[in-house]
Design brief:
With 639 residues, this protein is an alpha/beta fold. It has 23 helices and 18 strands. It comes from Nostoc punctiforme (strain ATCC 29133 / PCC 73102).
Length: 639
Amino acid sequence: MTIINTQFPIDLGAYKPLALNPANSSLTDEQRETLKANIQLCRDAIVFFTATGAASGVGGHTGGPYDTVPEVIILDAFFRGASEQFVPIFFDEAGHRVATQYLMATLHGDLPAEQLLHYRQAHSHLPGHPELGLTPGVKFSSGRLGHVWPYINGVAMANPGKAVFCLGSDGSQQEGNDAEAARLAVAQHLNVKLIIDDNDVTIAGHPSKYLPGFSVAKTLEGHGLKVLQGDGEDLDDLYRRMSEAVNTPGAIAIINKRPMCPGIEGLEGSTHGHDVISVDLAVKYLESRGQTAAVEYLKSIEKPKQTYTFLGSSDKWGANRNVFGEAVVGVLSRMSESERKEKVKVIDSDLEGSCGLKKIHDTYPEIFIPSGIMERSNFSAAAGFGMEKGKQGIFATFSAFLEMCISEITMARLNYSNVLCHFSHAGIDDMADNTCHFGLNNMFADNGLDDGYETQLYFPADVNQMTACVEAIFFEPGLRFIFSTRSKVPNIQDSDGNDLFGSGYKFVPGKDEVVREGTQGYIISFGDALYRSLDAVERLKQEGLDVGLINKPTLNTIDEEMITKIGNAPFVLIVEAFNRRTGLGSRFGSWLLERGLAPKYAHLGTHKEGCGGLWEQYPYQGIDPVSIINKVKELVGGQ
């Protein structure tokens, strides 16, 4: 990794390390002023370096880390002043608040400030969620939202007598994991202290509106925790409550009420504050703070672009994750209003804008339920609605969260439910959040028995095939999983330069499709790996290697005719972005051998933790066109 030798334009040396003893429940004037100065400095820094993510195109999250600066700075002072009382780690179960971890690593001397200028960029070791062992100064991996509290219960058990803090949120508290963790913490008298940013904002809305009966404070009190609630921006009250929590044994929740992004004009109280601040708003904020050098740096950033030209695909790119919603609306539009209300229910998990459900919400709100960050419950509700013949639930979330729903998927299968599921953000492409948000184990959805209720997995290759797929399977019974990527994909073309899945194309579930014929062997691929494989095939043909390409949009069904065809070819190469251990390639070789077919066989897939960035993830995993070409030449050379 190369870091440009540019000085961080905000003087982090102005941070004044402060040691505070929580036995003292109030601040002196000097301590208060030092805290205020440190808080403002850190908030300026977070706005600035997260905005570099907006300027460079890798995105990020500003509001969460910005909100929680006051409590983090007080924690830092506690750790410095009475370290023997604490496990001195800023555990945080909202992984998107990773800017907190990077800033504190810098202030503690573990991470050069200049490295923050490369926030979330490829190979910068600053991914969108903290990863232990990857980034100097980062002391834990957060995983997905709401997964840390159960974990630190064990940390508390391993460190009796010490307080363990966990930064939480009203969003993370919606996950069922936290309810279980709360009960264990109380029952075992664990010295766990939750600091919860209760700002009434999540990705797609306001919990007070989509979960109007939900109260973080009342819920935690019901589990048996002592709750200390107050204004997170009232520094003296915040300090008093945090001191009381330390001085009181057992599990305690410090709940801080504040609007999202307090003091940032244009973001305060807005759902947009959850994501990365725009460059324009960051410039406006930093100018008001007199941070001229930071403003100039932001204005100088040029967004890097993917310049590779992919052969075999058009220059028209589309977002399959959004087209899913558009295609569903197309089907629903042919139903009467009464029929829609009776037969279809769409349940969101706070990701409607990311998974394409917003189009359905906007068009047919009467069948749409905006729900919270409760993937297991929401999936099961959709399945329960679809238990009756002729009815179906529609559910969507990120592919990484599919693993959280395996038991519920089994239950839905045993109850013969009809569920159309869209799991977006499959694979690794454009995934600066990195490893914990990779959608790699999607094949886990097909976890039934051979005689079980039908489950089908689909991964369309472009927007045309996505539309055709939804049209073909919408009214089918059973569990149907459609996958899409976070990234846009180009339209796949035939040999004449026409859209392969364009006018006249009909999607046939279970059928593999010839994209290019070849005599020397076949590549089998799907989803966003298909257009990269097609580019490799076209370039190999230009070099005189006649390699074919097969699209396998139905991932878990064997097309007997096609497998016989490719099984008699000299070689078969599976190319996918799924986990090498659990993806298509891990089972396709067995399918071949079971039929007495034994071509030379190889398998490329995701096999190591990510590098951050966007399109850079593909070459890093060795599944880009160059890597595919090299693998084919290795296979052909050995014939």
